[in-house]
Amino acid sequence: MGKPTEGLHPDTIAIRSGYDAAMGGMSAKPPLYLTSTFGYGSAQQAKDIHQAFFDGTGPEAGGEGLIYARLGHPNLTMVETRLAAFDGAEAACVFNSGMAASTAIALAFLKPGDSVVYTRPIYGGTDGLLGKLLARFGVASAVCLNGCSEAAMAAAISEASGKGRLRAIWVETPANPTAALVDLAMVVRLAATLPDRPLTVCDNTLLGPVMQRPHDFGIDLVMTSLTKYAGGHSDLLAGGVSGSAALMRELVAVRTTLGSHLDPFTAWLLLRSMETVGLRMERASANADRLARWLRDHPKVTGITYLGFVAEGTPEHAVFQRQCKGAGSTFSFRITGGEAEAFRLLDALRLVTLAVSIGGTETLITHPASTTHYSVDRAAREAAGVTDSTIRLSVGIEHVDDLIADFAQALETI
């Protein structure tokens, strides 16, 4: 759908992929298709379209035959085409939230008796899905705490394999909330050595969809919470997965059954927002770099995980240089003290919004141990670097001097 995008830069893909004016009566921007159902030209065509959707065969196979908005609609197709182009993938499948996307992956590819390896830290909802909810359905798990260590990943693979058939290696890089990195090429290489190769899954939310392309390193499924930078205005929920057309068909089947598709209006709004994601991420990243350098030098800040500070000569630096096109604008920092001091700082901020989520035009801040990672066992989250003194920051596109001034006055309270 739309014009070919191979070889184009992300900023051009953001405008030109997924929609061609000829598709919408020469409207410069995509129409909004507010309909729940679609008509057929004949009873035979209705049958052929259903055959194409459910079996992938027949005279309508490969066409745009539409049935019912839960199965697919034009605005959804536009978003999926654009996401696939961003990620350099054959196809994409978009859902009504990031967790809906992750849950669909789990339901499509994991079954009782299987096991999964996942890295930690990882988004709290994903941690709960993989480490707790799936365990109730007979899917075991093992955790890797260092995604840049081949020995640590191999040990987690061995542990998981002892609990059941290893079906997936699931990573998030950079990780939420500490921006910890995972060596994607190493993960793919280890997966390929196993007799029954597991799927490789990467949560690309912190740098996706323009600053990192995990498919370039052989990852099978790339999940992005499109709520975050792609949506970018803290006013919608969406999640997407990209990969081969065959894998996407499996996800579409699950989405159809669950009804977790993205609705037309949100898809239209997301498509519009994706046009400026490169500009917004560039400005937010520049702000984050200046603010991180200021925070690093403050006497009440005891540590910072900003990717721009990864030490040269380390495995993490090599991974950063190889995988990432930038440091992004989400990182965490630690302050002197614990929860009480963190709360005083958060309550003293005047410009920065105290809220969960990341990637908005506004700067967002939260205390992960008591919010996003509250449901993760204390020992597990502390082992992953999320302590009571950890604060997560998603830098927006305000003027950075105003942000620095706000942190300067707030840090005086601790």
Layout of helices and strands:
Layout: H1 10-16, H2 43-55, H3 74-87, E1 91-95, H4 98-109, E2 114-119, H5 124-133, E3 140-144, H6 150-161, E4 165-172, H7 184-193, E5 199-203, E6 221-224, E7 239-243, H8 245-258, H9 264-274, H10 277-296, E8 301-304, H11 315-323, E9 330-335, H12 339-348, E10 353-354, E11 364-366, H13 378-383, E12 390-394, H14 400-411
Parallel strand pairs: 2-3, 2-4, 4-5, 5-6, 10-11
Antiparallel strand pairs: 1-7, 6-7, 8-9, 9-12, 11-12
Helix pairs in contact: 3-9, 4-5, 4-8, 10-14, 12-14
Notes on the structure:
The protein is built from 14 helices and twelve strands. The strands form two sheets. The protein has a seven-stranded mixed sheet, with helices on both faces. The chain has a five-stranded mixed sheet with strand order 8-9-12-11-10, covered by helices on one side. Strand 4 (165-172), helix 7 and strand 5 form a beta-alpha-beta unit. It has helices spanning 10-16, 43-55, 74-87, 98-109, 124-133, 150-161, 184-193, 245-258, 264-274, 277-296, 315-323, 339-348, 378-383, 400-411, and strands spanning 91-95, 114-119, 140-144, 165-172, 199-203, 221-224, 239-243, 301-304, 330-335, 353-354, 364-366, 390-394. With 414 residues, the chain is α/β, with parallel strands linked by helices. Helix content is 39%, strand content 14%. The chain has a domain at 278-411: Alpha-Beta Complex (Aspartate Aminotransferase, domain 1).
